[in-house]
User: Fold this.
Amino acid sequence: MSGALVIIERELLALLRSQRTLAILMTVAISSAVVVILKWPTSGVVDLSGAQARQVFQWLTYAMLTASLLIIPVFPAISLVREVRGRTLELLLNSPLSRASIYFGKAGAMMGFVMLLLFATIPAMSCCYMMGGLSLSNDVAKLYGFLFAVALHLVVIGLLVGTYARTTEAALRWSYGVTFAVTVVTVFPNFFLQGSDSLIAAGARWLRLLSPIPALMKIVSQQSIGGAGLIEDRDPLRWYLILAAVQIVIGSIVVIKRLSHSLLDRSRSQGIITDEQTAGVRAARRVFFLIDPQKRSTGIPWYLNPVMVKEFRSRQFGRLHWLIRLVAGCAVLSLMLTLATTLGTIDWEVEPIGGLIIVLQVALIVLMTPGLAGGMIAGEIEGGGWNLLRVTPISAGKILRGKLISVCITLALLLCATLPGYAIIMLIKPSLQEQVWQVLISLVMAALVSMFVSATVSSFFRSTAGATTVSYALLILLFAGPMLIWMNRDAPFGHTFVEKSLVLNPMAAALNAIQATGFESYNLIPAAWYFAGGLCSVLVIVLYLRIRQLTRPE
Amino acid sequence: MASQEPVVVIRDLSKHYGEFVALDRLSLTLERGSILGFIGPNGAGKTTTIRILVGLARPTSGTATIAGADCVKDLHKVRKLVGYMPDKFGSYDNMRVREYLDFFGAAFSIPRSVRRKRIEEVLELTNATWMQDRFVESLSHGMQQRVGIARTLLHNPEVLILDEPANGLDPEARIEMREILLRLASEGRTLIVTSHILPELSRICNKVGIVAGGKLRAFGTLPEVTRELSQKQTIEIQLLTSENMQAIADKATQFLGPESEITVSAAESIVRCRTAANEEKLAQLLQKLISEGHRVAQFREVAGDLEEAFVSAARVADAERAAAKKSQEVAR
Assistant:
């Protein structure tokens, strides 16, 4: 166990010494305080029922869970990948420390950081508790215990991802992806299938128990998402803790098993090529592959930007066969959304379904774009490719165009996924045609803003991990920040202030266009488009100037 | 091989980073077909010079031209004239060697049909044809170095600038690298090669530039440089028989002074003298040995090695730095 302590000491000290950790802790402390201040009674008097205090408590718990989901996955995944890439894991494995000690040391250090993160919310929670109506053991202690369990769950996921990822960028992308899948995606099937007795619906009910969200809602005494008054047959909190414990134990065993020299000696496929296979193999591959990934690629034609082709080829899922798979995946997603739209409009109105599609789509954009554009320049500098590009005659403009087009095409494919859903909306309610067009324009704006923010951030960093993290933070601030203000639309913020804030957010413009609940009274279009267009123009100029600066002699 | 036509001309090149002087009025001229071994301790200014030559850095003062193109004003032209291989390989994930080369070929606007042929040529030249379908990141360091050289050759540059091409290579790969570089020079290209593996460099270079503390300490052919930098020279007295060798050694000590190092190799019948004595003293010694009837077969100067010259230059730079620091402290 002393071995684990050695690792904990080293890891935790390294974390605490970084300015980034301090910035994160400060941000969490300030944001949680802001959440409480926003919901603080304007009259300075609290009702005796404790309803107001509970409302503040609810907002604070959601803010704490969101912070945990955004911050915690980054550290464990990156920590392990850096250790592998820097060959320091080799030194650890060759020391008398056992693999379990290394694992528990790393997990322990991360949990130490989590403790600090939770401590940072204590001032806000104390204010909330002071308002009354909350029990120290049943509410506050229970919440902190629960968040500690969620954090442990996320740390194990992060470490597990770290043993598979080869680069910090991939580690970051996959740890966010898996976290998003476990916490958010698992909730949705039940959302659509609840009330049904089918086997799939039963599976969906179990699946949602993997997510901490229903459990948290139980802690704050709220109905589960879209519960529609149905009585839950299983206690989500108890089941989440059981399932998370199972995942933690299995995940820990897998990570400990994988923490070996094989992590350092992961030779990748050296590159089998179909052109050199036997005639039989070649014929078989022609039948089974629409686009054979092992076929020798032809040269880059003159009419294509070489940087764009390079971006696609060097991206893990950027090859043509992967793009076709992405299109196929989008088509399936699209069909599911279409089905959801059709079924949903029977029970609900068209607008809430439209709003749901918009939120999902923007969530997908915000999740994907930093992974695509965050490493655009920073990754190139980190990998040493940037200097090679600088000594070629390619101009700054051509480099920028190539890189941006490669992101644009991928985002366009993602956006296309939901087009049939909107088509159904227009079919059901033809009067919405113009509004749907406005939604589509707003979504394109959302994608462009995400892309330019991530790309610009990338040009100011020398490591992908830093650029991607800052891109995520900025995009979340841009898309979630105005929504937080909107949620407080009656008090303390007035209508004008909320409207001005929402203008910053293209997603709000789309929700306004579809007249989603709560957005009907605002007039965001075309002001939101002008703002997004203006922001994109400024970012393009900054990005271009920055690329010019980076390509010029120092 | 090397012609008299200058290709690389550097005049009073200086580069300052704030108060730190990375390069101090460095000047040198390199003829077509030369192989320049550009050596110096870490932080001496080699990479700074190279970065200015390839257009990655701008000099504070002075000029550098490649085939008449100014490295600051004619950057576009310089990029086409120079093939640069940095010490860091700069690979892209998920790209095969052929695709990697194809991208850089396209970046240099080589038409697709020509590019395909050119890729085959450079792969053959660097003995890398067999790895064309392999993923770049799956290659060993030595293989990546060969791909790196193939990349620099794609646009058929006149001047090749290779930063530490033999770094981290095993002996076999180093021999292969040496053969590749000699082959390139025989094609009439001018090569600037930095390396810390000095014996390796001395085998291929016909010019040596030693830089230390931002200054060019010596420049010329290997014998010129070693003569310039070595404070002591080595003289070998080859005798017909191994008789009276100790007497000859004593005589050498007497003539050349006690600070000279005299060693006797009876098996080779050679007396070696490392001495700072001048030519006059050496002539007197030879005359005395012959007059005393010693059967001297050869009396020759042994060329100094690069390592010695390198150490000597580094020591001078260290001494300068220490003196500058001391004078700063005194001024304070």
